[in-house]
């Protein structure tokens, strides 16, 4: 094995871990990852809630139980349904993230 190849920087995850262990940047990189993950989850939850709330409110007139009611009286029911839909969206997103 030549000296150049032996002394070349390693391009694998163990080399990166060894590089981060002494500099103190591992916690900074870790917090950046967690912030990005938190931002992704927040945006996903907010977008899915808004879109599902609009969807629930637009279809409420089609149901017999809520056909004659005003939109303000069905708002609580639609919000509860939209929150349930957000849980479904998050579950689908988590299941998709597990697929390699």
Features:
mainly alpha, 4 helices
Overview of the structural elements:
- The protein is mainly alpha-helical.
- It has one domain (3-98).
- 78% of the residues lie in helices and 0% in strands.
- It has 4 helices and no strands.
- It is elongated and about 80 Å long.
- The protein starts with a helix and ends with a helix.
- The mean pLDDT is 81.
Secondary structure blueprint with pairings:
Layout: H1 3-7, H2 13-23, H3 26-59, H4 71-98
Helix pairs in contact: 3-4
Count of domains: 1
Give the termini separation. Answer: 35 Å
| Residue share in helix | over 70%
User: What is the molecular shape?
Assistant: elongated
- Strand content range: under 5%
Mean pLDDT, rounded to whole units?
Answer: 81
Total strands: the figure is 0
Put simply, the count of helices is 4
pLDDT under 50 segments (min length 5)? none
What letter string, H or E per element, gives the SSE order? HHHH
Largest sheet: none
The helix-and-strand class reads mainly alpha
Radius of gyration: 24 Å
